[in-house]
Automatic annotation (TrEMBL):
Organism: Amycolatopsis thailandensis
Entry GO MF terms: alpha-L-arabinofuranosidase activity
Pfam family, one: LGFP
Name this protein carries in UniProt: Alpha-L-arabinofuranosidase B arabinose-binding domain-containing protein
Example of a GO biological process term: L-arabinose metabolic process
UniProt region (Disordered), positions on chain: 34-60
Length: 693
């Protein structure tokens, strides 16, 4: 080895060691003042502390006009005094009592739910909710009708094949479970169908559905085969006649239609001509069956008649079913596409866009599920700020004046931000625009009043409807919200307050500074978290966000330190350091040394394929990594000397050990030598490996 001796004292190393020791006792908490915002960025205002005005959230009782419109919507006759003199809650109960469950199943179910809630919910339901759910029922009626048609067809086929005759129409509209029970009760005793129905009845919804659509047909066919085999051994002629009758019954069940007993003794050609008289064949939905029946009726060949009865009618019914399903699927997909396009154009409903895209990529059942329920499950959103430096704040309204706020993180980790989630509903004053209803205050909407944006209970007046209607203008990834009541004025935040502002207007909140940034909004996922100091750094630092990726776990708080897992690694935050990124083997080594209870990272990790490093807590300590040496820390005056020699790119290369104690001082080993520090003389000595030794 060759030794280089330096006699200059190095007080800094001793100071760094003392600082590290102090770190084990706890993190320093030097409060940081607010920095001046760079040009083009907003200065974060003070977090609003105003208490919500609970009185402003009162939803006035429904007016007689509201009640008249509600009664008209549910189609139960006129709104007589018996309706109008009821309290709002009792009015909702009467809706539940009187409304048709067949025509308005969702409205009836919602009325039952609302009746069990607060009076304010009842008033809001009368004023807006009943109309929303009536529209849902209207929109869904085609789906329900198609579903009922298919259900009746499947059940008629099941009953006919199981030889449960005469057909009882009551069975066609039972629940699946009760239908299976009735099959078990009415099927021939000891038959495979009866035993299968009893077994399915003990199962779940999937078992009942499978039995009705598949299993009963398979078991019925086995029962029929066994029955005919027994009958052939006793009376071949009777068996042939009964086999013909069974084939005719099952053929008619494919349409489906009710079998007439007078057809039992008719010749095949007569039976086929009788089928043409069925009203079901006049339905365009059965065009393939009608055409096939007409072709068979024009034939003079007995074998053609026989083939039609045994297989042809079933094949034609299958073609009709496939065509109907294709047409219905196309119509449903067109409806989903229309919803998706409107949601995309609004910029307010990205979750609806995603759900629609997923549905369109799925099968017909996925599309139906979206139209029936899925589209209504993704109507809530939150609205985040766009202004650089003030990102991570959200629109919040608990009553009275509305604000933007990041929330108060306190000493907690991840927690939800209250009163910051909004249901995006059709505009109260214009269905082509939108209204934003609080998800925590039923019947309360964001509205303008004297140009200030507030959360108020809907009083049903035309003025309120205008004030609470917003017309979006999509602007790339952001959206502007123009007031319906004040055309040309758009929702803007300034000093954490919300106003409807106009560039160049005469009010203090119409100022042009950051007008564009303050009036653009990011539509984000509902139920946002309180934006902690760590997350505020992440929101407002593009390079940090690119390093870390997206959050993937909850944030933790411990004695002034915050840390959170992201897709690419971990962020640590303290008042002294701000949010800093660390990942990979350096993170593993850091955790092994005690993590945030040891030191806090003071720089983001700089990484490459052959090197990575992070500085810690401003104490001249860093962890370095390379593929061959792993992660090791260097500190104090040893690090200063190593840096003066070119650090890892110099003659010593990467550290191969953490700094450790020697007599009388400290030492760090490197790929091509080592450096020592003498605690008595403060002497730094570099030991370089001699080539070839």
């Amino acid at each position: 080895m060759r030794r280089t001796s330096i006699s200059r004292p190095w007080f800094r190393h001793g100071m760094a060691v003392a600082a590290v020791a102090a770190m084990f006792a706890g993190l320093p908490a030097a409060p940081a003042g607010a920095a001046e915002a760079p040009p083009g960025q907003g200065v974060p205002p003070a977090v609003p502390t105003a208490e919500p005005d609970i009185g402003a959230t009162t939803v006035p009782p429904a007016s007689q006009r509201d009640k008249v419109l509600a009664v008209e919507a549910i189609e139960v006759g006129e709104a007589t005094d018996d309706w109008l003199r009821l309290s709002d809650k009792n009015f909702v109960f009467k809706i539940y009592e009187k409304i048709s469950v067949d025509d308005y199943p969702r409205t009836k179910a919602e009325a039952s739910r609302i009746y069990g809630l607060a009076v304010a919910d009842a008033s809001a339901f009368i004023r807006t909710g009943v109309h929303e759910f009536v529209q849902r029922d209207h929109d869904e009626k085609i789906l329900r009708d198609n579903e009922r048609r298919d259900r009746i067809g499947v059940r008629m086929k099941a009953l006919e094949n199981a030889r449960i005759i005469p057909l009882d129409p009551v069975l066609l509209d039972l629940t699946d479970r009760n239908f299976v029970f009735q099959v078990a009760s009415r099927a021939k005793s000891g038959s495979r169908v009866q035993n299968g129905a009893m077994a399915a009845y003990k199962g779940d919804a999937a078992a009942w559905k499978t039995f009705i659509e598949v299993t009963v047909l398979e078991l019925a066919e086995q029962d029929i085969v066994e029955h005919l085999d027994r009958l052939r051994r006793e009376n071949a002629e009777k068996a042939a006649r009964e086999e013909r009758d069974i084939k005719r019954r099952t053929a008619v069940a494919e349409i489906p239609a009710t079998f007439q007993n007078i057809w039992l003794d008719a010749e095949d050609d007569v039976f086929i001509r009788e089928l043409l008289r069925l009203p079901e064949l006049a339905n365009p939905a059965n065009i393939e069956v009608k055409d096939a029946t007409e072709r068979a009726s024009r034939s003079t060949d007995r074998e053609v008649w026989k083939a039609f009865v045994e297989t042809g009618l079933k094949a034609a019914a299958g073609r009709d079913k496939a065509r109907r399903e294709a047409q219905e699927d196309q119509a449903n997909r067109d409806a989903v596409r229309q919803l998706k396009v409107r949601a995309e154009n609004s910029g307010l409903l990205p979750r609806l866009v995603t759900a629609a895209t997923t549905a369109l990529a799925g099968d017909r059942n996925a599309v139906i599920t979206f139209l029936r329920t899925g589209q209504y499950e993704v109507l809530t959103q939150s609205f985040g700020t766009y202004t650089p430096g003030v990102r991570g704040w959200h629109v919040q309204g608990g009553g009275g004046d509305a604000w933007i706020t990041p929330g108060n993180a306190g000493t907690d980790g991840t927690k939800p931000l209250a009163f910051a989630t909004w249901k995006v509903a059709p505009g109260l004053a214009d269905p082509l625009c939108y209204s934003l209803e609080s998800t925590e205050r039923a019947g309360n909407y964001l509205r303008q009043q004297d140009l200030r944006v507030k959360l108020h209970g809907n009083d049903g007046t035309d003025q309120f409807k205008k004030d609470a209607t917003w017309c979006p203008r999509r602007n790339g990834a952001t959206v502007l919200l123009e007031s319906k009541a004040q055309p040309g004025r758009i929702l803007r935040h300034i000093d954490a307050q919300l106003w409807i502002a106009q560039l160049g207007g005469g009010n203090w909140f119409d100022t042009d500074r950051l007008f564009h940034e303050d009036s653009n909004w990011r539509t984000v996922a509902p139920n946002p978290e309180v934006s902690t100091p760590l997350m505020l750094d992440w929101f407002n630092d593009d390079s940090l966000r690119a390093l870390a990726g997206n959050p993937k776990a909850a944030e933790f708080y411990d004695a002034g330190a915050r840390f959170r897992e992201f897709t690419n690694g971990r962020l640590y935050w303290s008042q002294q350091t701000g949010a800093k990124f660390i990942t990979g083997e350096i993170l593993t080594r850091y955790l092994g040394l005690g993590g945030h209870k040891w030191l806090m990272p003071s720089t983001n990790q700089v990484s490459g394929p052959t090197r990575a490093m992070v500085n810690f807590n401003g104490e001249n300590l860093a962890i370095y990594w390379s593929p061959s040496t792993g992660a090791k820390y260097v500190m104090g005056s040893i690090r200063d000397r190593w840096n003066s020699l070119g650090a890892e790119a110099g003659r010593l290369g990467f550290p191969t050990s953490d700094e450790f104690t020697i007599a009388p001082g400290r030492q760090s080993n490197f790929e091509h030598g080592y450096i020592t520090w003498n605690s008595a003389t403060y002497e730094i000595i570099v030991h370089l490996a001699v080539s070839g030794t």
